[in-house]
Write a structure and sequence with these properties.
- This protein is mostly beta strands.
- It contains no helices and eleven strands.
- The relative contact order is 0.31.
Length: 123
């Protein structure tokens, strides 16, 4: 079992940056593939980025590729999402998730979810 707590959201102007963190308790994050998802009002939750347990492989949605970077520090049980060049359409609640097996963009592949952190980008 693992519990996930996401933080770092806030209000930022378009073109700005934010870094989200997701800290795990329980089993270490080194045992899990990790992902970030987001959900804007009135839409379904969508994949943003994923990272393998070692950090050696990363995957991104086309909409964030080149602007967002996912990384992890297993010693700190934390996964990060660095978000640069933010756009109004990035406004959403961002969720982190952990998977006990290899996982990419499929939400059904993730076993544990954090509570979400709000990101609002003003244009």
């Amino acid at each position: 079992q693992v519990q996930l707590v996401a933080s770092g959201g806030g209000l930022v102007q378009a073109g700005g940056s934010l870094r989200l963190s997701c800290t795990a308790s329980g089993r270490t994050t080194g045992s899990y593939h990790m992902g970030w998802f987001r959900q804007a009002p009135g839409t379904e939750r969508e994949f943003v980025a994923a990272i393998s347990w070692s950090g050696g492989s990363t995957y991104y949605a086309d909409s964030v590729k080149g602007r967002f970077t996912i990384s992890r520090d297993n010693a700190k049980n934390t996964v990060y999402l660095q978000m640069n060049s933010l756009k109004a359409e990035d406004t959403a609640v961002y969720y982190c998730a952990a998977a006990e097996r290899i996982a990419y963009s499929g939400q059904e592949d993730y076993d544990y979810w954090g509570q979400g952190t709000q990101v609002t980008v003003s244009s």
